[in-house]
Amino acid sequence: MRHPDEVQLQAYHDGELEGEVREQVQAHLGQCASCVERLREWGELSAVLRRIRPAEGAFSPEGEFWARLAGRLPKMRPSTWPLVPYLPPFLLGLFGLLAEGLLSIAFLVYALIGMGVIPPLAPALTTWLSKALADPLLEDSLYSWLGWSSSEVVRAVTQPLEAVSLATQETIFMLAIVFALGTFLSLVVIVYLSWAMCWSESARPNG
Amino acid sequence: MDQEAMAEAQLIEAAASGNVGAFSQLVRQYRGRVLRTAFGIVGSTEEAEDVGQEVFVKVWNNLPRYRAQGTLASWLYRITVNAALDALRHKQDEVPLDDWQSDSSELPEEAALRSDRGKRVRQALGSLPPGARSALILREYEQLSYKEIAEVLQIPIGTVMSRLNYARKVLKERLA
Asked: Which of A49, A65, A202 to mutate: most B Cβ within 10 Å?
C-alpha cells in the first residue's frame, strides 16, 4: 500500500477508520517509519489540545451559574408571532364554515324549489351547462385534441339530464355541488396536514 | 431506550412543560460541555459563560418545540456553536486577535494552564476560521465522532474530515 494521505491518517488516529481500509493503514504503519512519525505528530497535537482543555474549576461554580441563569429565564416562554401557530386551524375552520354556509344555501334552495316557492333551477342550470360545454375555448383545445365536436358533447351531457324528471335533475345538481365542495375541502385538509407534518416550524429540525 | 435516556426524556418533558427543577438538572448535566465548547470557540471563560447563559435561555425557550430527532447533546452543541460563533463575530469587531484568551478575570487554575506553549496553542486556535475551529473543538475537547460533529454542524462527514485536516495542519505549522 502506498502512503495513506493526511485525512486517512487522521481518521485512523481518531479511530474513525473501519474494516479493510483500517487494516491496510495498520499494515502500512507496521513497515513505514515516516508514516508512524506523522501519526505521532497528530497524536502529539491532540494531546496538546486536550491539555489546554479548560478544567471544571476554570468556570464559575455551578450554583452561581444557575443563580444567574434562573434570574434570566423568562416566566412566560416567548412564542413565535402569536397567530402563526393558530393560523392553519383557523383558516381550516374558515373554509369549513364557508363550505357549510354554501351547502346550507344549496339545501335551502332545494327545499324552496320542492315547496314550489321558487321556480326550478334545473332548466336554467342545464342551459348554462350547455353554453359552458359549447365554449369555443373548449372546442379549440380539448375537443379538437380528443376529436370531439361541441354539439356531440352537449348532447351527450344534456340528453340524459332531460330524460329524467325535474326533481332528479335538481338532485343530480345538488350532488355535484356537494361533491365539488367535498373535493375542495379534502384538498385544503391535505395541504394543511402536509404543511403541519413537513414544512411547519415544529416539523423542522430544531437548532 | 435505556434507563438513562428515559430519565432524560422525562426531564426534557418536565422542563418543556415549565418545571424549573427539571431544567436545572438538565443544566447541571450539560453545563460543562456547553461551557467547554463555547470556551474553545470564543477563547475566554467570561465570554464562554455569557454564551452558556444565552444557550440555556434559548434551550428553555425552545424546549416545548424540541423534537428528539437527534440527541439532546447534539442539539445543545449546535446551539452552543452557533451562539459562540455569533459572540465571536461581535468580539472580532471589538477586540484584536492577539487578545484572544487574555481576560483579566481568569482563575488560578486557568493561569496555571497558561504556559507559553498553552498560550501559543490558544492563539493558534483563535486564528483558525470559525468552521474549522468548531470542528476541531468538538473533536478534541468533546471527543465527538465524525458523525456526531457532522450532525452538530449540519455538514457532510467529508467536510468534517477536511475541516479537521485543515485545522490540524494550520495548528501544526503555527506551532512548529
From this structure: A49
